[in-house]
Design brief:
single chain; alpha/beta; 2 domains; five-stranded parallel sheet; 15% strand
Length: 238
């Protein structure tokens, strides 16, 4: 055997890794899109909070005083939307780098079950995961809806059903990141969804929640069409 090859491990490498090596989005190190060092720079949420007021809340449930009849009943997010996470999400969305989702789902697998997510699974029998959809033309332009693979991964991890057809985006709204105020974001997203015939209990999945305008509109649409419970999971929150 060539002595230069002794001790080299190939079991974790694929042919695509050789042709297209992975570089960490944080520091540029080879091997993965999110290296162990930069994973430590991500900022996880340590306390679950109410979706509406942001104060600590048991299991992330909306406080009784904060609840809306057509609103979000509970909310769990893993990470703060810091600069590194922004770079990860933007690379997925705008560079069409769907392959990065594998490393992102790896983070979910390590950390999601540390949250009270199973509380929702047990409290709301028949809970079904639904991703926040993109407008059809925008999804074709981007090549995929980054929230769908996350939804598939989360539903598999929790052993619950998923539905990618019930909630449909029927309005091509301007990018929410371009809106300057919360009021503009609310106005942008009004009437953006069609809810079909949703299941009674829904785990709404999104990659990032910022002002929450999109999440609120999606929950409102689902409840107007018959859903009883809408709890939300996002990978990050700004």
């Amino acid at each position: 055997m060539n002595t230069k090859l002794q001790g080299v491990k190939y079991s974790h490498m694929s042919f695509s890794d050789v042709l297209f090596p992975r570089f960490c989005l944080g520091c540029g190190a080879t091997g993965s899109f999110i290296c162990v060092r930069c994973e430590g720079l991500l900022s996880p949420f340590e306390i679950n909070t109410c979706f509406y007021c942001g104060s600590p809340s048991l299991n992330g449930l909306s406080h009784p005083r904060c609840r809306r009849p057509k609103g979000v009943d509970g909310f769990i997010s893993l990470y703060h939307y810091n600069n590194l996470f922004k770079k990860i999400i933007k690379s997925i969305k705008y560079n069409k780098a769907k392959i990065i989702l594998g490393d992102l789902n790896h983070l979910l697998g390590k950390n999601l079950l540390k949250t009270p997510i199973y509380y929702y699974v047990k409290k709301f029998p028949g809970l079904v995961a639904i991703p926040v959809p993109l407008f059809e033309a925008r999804q074709k332009q981007r090549g995929f809806n980054q929230t769908e693979p996350i939804c598939t991964y989360v539903s598999g991890l929790l052993s619950i059903g998923q539905n990618t057809n019930t909630l449909v985006r029927i309005k091509d709204t301007p990018m929410q990141t371009l809106a300057l105020t919360k009021k503009q974001r609310r106005e942008n997203i009004q009437g953006a969804f069609y809810g079909g015939s949703p299941p009674p209990h829904i785990l709404l999945i999104d990659d990032v929640v910022t002002t929450g305008a999109t999440t609120k509109e999606a929950a409102k649409t689902l409840k107007e069409n018959g859903a009883k419970t809408v709890v939300v999971f996002s990978v990050a929150k700004g």
